[in-house]
Amino acid sequence: MQFLKTLFWVVLTVILVLWAKANWANVTLRLWGGLEADVKLPILILFAFLAGFIPPFAVYRARLWSLRRRLEPAERRSVAAPAAVPAPVTVSNNAGDRVATDSKAWPTA
């Protein structure tokens, strides 16, 4: 499975590099005040992708951090105070008295 994941990323990288090489042309951006900037098209697309990806990713990571911070005290309490083990239950039947336990095999009576 790791091989397929690596193969996918290698193929995707090769495709992106070939696309960037084929489209390596200047794009003129008209900025405010009559300023113009010449930028390579793949670089412009990369910055546009990052401008749209980074803010939601930062919000996601901040929310995840906040939820983990709220959950940690409860996890520490559950580890510090283990659940009480109930006492064994005595069961009477015709074959004799047996004690119910947590083991898979019945105890010999």
- What is the makeup of the main sheet? 2 strands, antiparallel
User: What is the β-strand count?
Assistant: 4
Strand content: 15-25%
* SSE class: alpha+beta
Overall 3D geometry? elongated
Q: Largest sheet, order of strands side by side?
A: 1-2
Question: What portion of residues is helical?
Answer: 55-70%
Give the averaged pLDDT, no decimals: 84
Order of helices and strands: HEEHEE
Radius of gyration in whole Å, from Cα?
Answer: 32 Å
**How many DSSP helices?**
2
Question: Which segments are poorly predicted (pLDDT under 50) over 5 or more consecutive residues?
Answer: none
Q: Span between N and C termini?
A: 52 Å
3D structure, described in words:
With 109 residues, the protein is α+β, with helices and mostly antiparallel strands. The protein has a domain at 22-95. It contains 2 helices and 4 strands; from the N terminus they run H-E-E-H-E-E. Strands 1-2 form a two-stranded antiparallel sheet.
Write a short abstract of this structure.
This protein has helices spanning 2-22, 41-80; strands at 26-30, 36-40, 90-93, 96-99. The protein has 109 residues and is an alpha+beta fold.
Ordered list of secondary-structure elements with their pairings:
Layout: H1 2-22, E1 26-30, E2 36-40, H2 41-80, E3 90-93, E4 96-99
Antiparallel strand pairs: 1-2, 3-4
